[in-house]
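Let's sit down with a protein and look at its sequence and fold side by side. Please make up or recall a protein chain and show it to me in full. Label the sequence line and the structure token line clearly, so we can match residues to local backbone shapes. Go ahead whenever you are ready, and we will take it from there.
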Amino acid sequence: MKPEERINLKDFFEKSSISKIVGESEYGNAVLTHYLHNNKNGVSSFYKNDARKYLETILRHLKPSNVMDPIDFKEIEDILNIDDIARIPFPSPNKPKFKFIDLFAGIGGFRIAMQNLGGKCIFTSEWDSKAKVTYRANFGEEPFGDITKEETKSYIPDNFDLLCAGFPCQAFSIAGRRGGFEDTRGTLFFDVAEIIRRKKPKAIFLENVKGLRGHDKGKTLATILNVLRNELGYYVPEPEIINAKDYGVPQKRERIFIVGFRKDLKIETFEYPEPSKSPVSFEDVKEEEPVSVKYYLSNTYLNTLKKHKARHLGKGNGFGYAVIADDEIANSVVCGGMGRERNLVLDHRITDYTPVTHIKGEVNREGIRKMTPREWARLQGFPDNFLIPVADASAYKQFGNSVAVPAIQATAEKIIEIIT
């Protein structure tokens, strides 16, 4: 096919006619982009046949005059203009040191950390459709969907080195009588454990909320560790509570890290990374230029927050909004409840107080505003070239659900030193 006749890869994602013609395909774009990312590293066999079938279906509608029956082409790259892959913000390393998979990937916090260390991602899954948009924009790859489905698991390649999973912190109780593999059924951890059992990676790296340690009086974590250690055969040192503020970002974000190594590797010790000595503060991530007035609270809403906090203080509770000074460290960014209101900031650089959105009352004159999505991204350690292609509401949710990249990377560096 002549170069000018090739189809731009972005057409598969941006033209609504594609989905109308082909119909909703849960795996089409994922299979195709995973093939394009892995067509030269020995992993393509897991994706190639289905990628061809998906491409053929689309080609018969987009370029019927150029398509014979059966379709005559040697490589998918002969049909697609894949220059888009090379222009993504975060391409895979040219000479990777290790291979990993990215489960419950969100917007790719684990992936950035691993790629910074020389890792090649060969499979990724994420069910949230808007998170997929952000992931695809930055990595040029569509994540597979629901990892609880057997069809999704069937696409996971063999022979990767590291399994990464920030599995969701759903409320579950798995303190059964045996406290083993069967007791985790019905939880997302079971799906992670099942993949570990089938694929037997050299190492695993799991992340969850701090509260997992004390959930169900410690029985939940004990069950998880029992499965990893005794039923799956991994050396798992005691999990560590890691605080993001100790690894270069000004955010108090405590998460539990669980690391494991396949026992046949005979690894008997693991040291979590030492905290960084570098001081951090919100000023390090604050927007350099004045931000839109839309981020400033209305005086009506600000007064409501003040009254709400006063009521809780009167009851002896500490709940309420918080204003972070430039020289302070932010509270944990979370996607629900008072997530944004717990991280308000002072910014007096605004000059035009004319509202640009529908608000009750006027814009407050105290200089109190919400952090921007880019500031949240920086609090999580995402570089400034990370694209944010979604609306603010989705962006806050995505960064709130993500991992703190520097803390992940510091720990992963220790893992990679051992397994490579």
Remarks:
- The chain has a mean pLDDT of 87.
- The chain is about 35% helix and 10% strand.
